[in-house]
Design brief:
By secondary structure, this protein is an alpha+beta fold. It folds into two domains: about 40 residues, no CATH class; about 70 residues, no CATH class. It has two helices and five strands. The strands form two sheets. The protein has a three-stranded antiparallel β-sheet with strand order 1-2-3, with no helix packed on it. Strands 4-5 form a two-stranded parallel sheet. The longest helix is centred in the middle third of the chain and has 18 residues. The protein is elongated, with a radius of gyration of 17 Å. The two termini are about 25 Å apart. About 10% of the residues are buried.
Length: about 110
């Protein structure tokens, strides 16, 4: 998705859990950044991606309120399109304020 993230690691320190995002800098070196410093959109993208992969691989349902919040419109369309594959039996139920999804490429009339 072009974020420059090459890895995500989780460390447990006593009762705290630290999540680190590993980015590649312009110099080619890898830098470890705490997830708290990432944008809300990046955090939501990571959480949704894992849920979407799980739902589509297990033919399950996924319900998300305000799917479009914090997400770039192209990423939103990509996530919705993941449920339109020929072999996909998973179902996505969501609310949104993004009218660009009201297009037959993303949603049919009977799906709204």
């Amino acid at each position: 998705m072009g974020l420059g993230i090459v890895d995500i690691t989780v460390e447990k320190r006593n009762d705290d859990v630290m999540v680190w995002m590993h980015h590649v800098g312009e110099d080619g070196d890898t830098y470890k950044i705490p997830i708290d410093l990432e944008s809300e959109g990046t955090k939501k993208m990571i959480a949704l991606h894992s849920l979407i992969v799980k739902a589509t691989s297990q033919d399950a349902g996924l319900i998300v309120d305000e799917l479009d919040a914090e997400l770039h419109p192209l990423l939103l369309r990509h996530f919705v399109s993941r449920f339109h594959g020929q072999d996909v039996r998973a179902q996505l139920i969501f609310t949104t304020h993004d009218l660009s999804l009201l297009d037959k490429r993303y949603l049919r009339r009977d799906q709204v």
